[in-house]
Amino acid sequence: LLMVAAAVYYVAVGLRAARQTVRWQQALAAVRTRGEVPRARALQPGWLAIAAIVLCVVCSIASYPRQLVGLSFGEMSGRLGQADEFREEGQVDQAVQELEILVQENPDIAFLHNELGMTYAQRGQFDLAAEELKRALELQPEQGGIHAALARIYYLGDEPDLAEQALRRAEELGADDAVVQVMLGLAYYTMGEWTTAEERGLRAVDLLPEEPMIYLYLASAYSAQAKYEQALAACDQALALDAGLVAAYVARGYVYIHQEDLDAAQAAFSEAFALGPEVSGVHSALSYLHYVRGEVAEALREAKESVRLDPYDQIGQEQLAFTYHARGELDQALAAAR
User: Fold this and answer.
1) How far are the Cα atoms of 6, 90, 171 from residue 44, in angstroms, in the given order?
2) Fewer CB atoms < 10 Å away: N or C end of the chain?
3) ∠ CA(176), CA(203), CA(242), 5° rounding?
4) What is the pLDDT, as a whole number, of residue 39?
């Protein structure tokens, strides 16, 4: 019963947090489609937020025997819940502190090393993230999703040979695992291999057709290839499974911007705001829409709200940089860009 309770807790926490962080998918897809490669490169670290949540679920289920040694479920769930709340509220530094304590007290729990590593990645600390993921793999070497996540981190750290090795191992381990397929898709997407990313997403849908987050990932893969109608259909499928999924409305909005239908984008983002007024990604999306329309004052207002809610929202910081630059406030633009 304890293990069943743990499964329910970690899956619920993981999926809830994923819905807050999936905004990185749509933003990166939007930028890549416009061909702004340097800007897309700057946004890539945000994908690790999604990877953190998916891997959280994978490793938690695989690591129960270890987790039950040295720390009671009640204590662990309470403290992990606190770290999760910190992340959702944009307090990533506090989440790191909480997880560092848990790892120090429980060095033999793979799941905790994974959680800490992915949270380091959310701060852009890829060297630290890689070290924690490698420790997780020492404890759980057969976790294909962690190999795939490590491949992305190696790629972002300009270590292509190590990235390729990690990808091969993930492919070997995860042919029939929906989560690993999504993680592989994220890695291939980051590397610009969008067709392969789409294939991994479709495979994940075959394996786990009732998970709405997989359809949002697939929408991003379609959008990157300018398959906008398919992207919208994937968003619709996600909403059919979860009508309150904020990220699906955000994803729709970005696709409509690709199609130059700004009124439809406004309607989609308004739906997202009604469901999640305190979600930083909703405000960064609204900021982007205002910026595209040339409404600099409104874009700046929404960007400020985005980074107030989450200082590590890179899209919000990017929008701050663009809007400050448009206003001629170059010092503030440079600070946001940094």
Assistant:
1) 31, 18, 22
2) N
3) 105
4) 39
**205-208-212-214 Cα dihedral, nearest 10 degrees:** -50
Q: Look at residue 90 in the predicted model and tell me its pLDDT.
A: 73
Both tokens assigned to 292: 């595209």
Q: What would the two tokens of residue 335 be?
A: 């600070």
Confirm if 123 and 46 have CB atoms less than 8 A apart.
no
- State the Cα–Cα distance between residues 169 and 149, nearest whole angstrom: 11
**pLDDT confidence of residue 76:** 65
Buried b (16+ CB within 10 A) or exposed e, 282-301: bbbbbbbbbbeeeebebbbb
Which residues have a Cβ under 8 Å from the Cβ of 292 and sit 6 or more positions away? 257, 262
Please choose, from the candidates 54, 63, 177, the residue with its C-alpha nearest in 3D space to the C-alpha of residue 112.
Answer: 63
Collapse the DSSP code of 204 into the 3-class scheme (helix H, G, I; strand E, B; otherwise coil) and give the result. helix
* Helix axis angle, 262-275 to 280-292, nearest 10°: 160
Give the closest residue to 197 by CA, choosing from 210, 209, 187: 187
239: Cα separation from own chain's centroid: 18
Q: How high is the mean pLDDT in each 10-residue block of the chain (338 residues)?
A: 41 40 40 39 38 41 39 64 78 89 90 90 89 94 92 89 93 91 91 93 95 93 95 96 95 96 97 94 96 96 94 90 96 92
CB atoms within 10 A of CB 141: 12
Encode 251-276: b = buried (16+ Cβ within 10 Å), e = exposed.
Answer: bbbbbbbbeeeeebbbebbebbbebb
Task: Give the pair of three-digit tokens for residue 261.
Answer: 């239908």
Residue 278 backbone phi and psi in degrees, to 5 = -105, 15
Q: Tell me, what's the pLDDT at 75?
A: 65
- Crossing angle of helices 212-224/228-241, nearest 10°? 170
Q: What is the DSSP-derived secondary structure letter of residue 244?
A: T
Those residues whose C-beta lies under 8 Å from the C-beta of residue 244, and which sit 6 or more positions away, are: 275
